[in-house]
Design brief:
mainly alpha, 0% strand, transmembrane, transport, cell membrane, transmembrane helix
Length: 56
């Protein structure tokens, strides 16, 4: 449950943490960094960057 909270908080760029981030391995930390970046850009922006002709 704590890992899910950290993940959703990272994607939503909320800023709440439970202190679990410092105990994670390097690949998990990199994944959280990617989720923070993706959450900041928004899924629609990322989808448009991948498929610029349009999503629909």
């Amino acid at each position: 449950m704590k890992i899910l909270f950290e993940t959703v908080s990272a994607f939503g760029t909320v800023g709440y943490i439970l202190g679990l981030t410092t105990d994670l391995s390097v690949p998990c930390t990199v994944l959280l960094i990617f989720l923070m970046f993706a959450g900041r850009l928004s899924p629609l922006t990322i989808a448009y960057a991948i498929h610029p002709e349009g999503i629909l």
